[in-house]
Amino acid sequence: MEIPVTGFVVHSGDSDSNHSHRLFITSWDGRPVNNDHVHPFKGTTSFDVGHCHHYAGVTKPAPSGVPHVHHYYAETSFNDQHKHIIRGTTGPAIRLPGGGHYHRFEGCTTVNGRIPHVHKYGGSTGDEEECRPQSF
């Protein structure tokens, strides 16, 4: 019995020559296989003009197991009569000792407020989560 399978092979960069490539299957028997994942992120901005803001979100999906980054977007909490937007691209994946990975991110918010200002923010994403398509 033959099952049609599609995918791709990526050089893993491991020093072990027996495992220098990884196979990623993109479809199995004509059905797509989801290899995407996302990361939660949250934090608190810098303290500027007498206040700070909190933020939380989930990165945009990216492929698992290959060198990648994630785009992210979130609105901050409403403090001092206004809020800000944070958006950007994470750094590359940083492996965790027990498997999985996380990403670093940092930047400045959009300008807003009665006294126009920005806040700095930064941190690390949470460990990866599988991204499952939602059905409605």
TrEMBL record:
Pfam families: YmaF. It comes from the Bacteria. This is YmaF family protein. It comes from Paenibacillus terrae. The lineage of its organism: Bacteria, Bacillati, Bacillota, Bacilli, Bacillales.
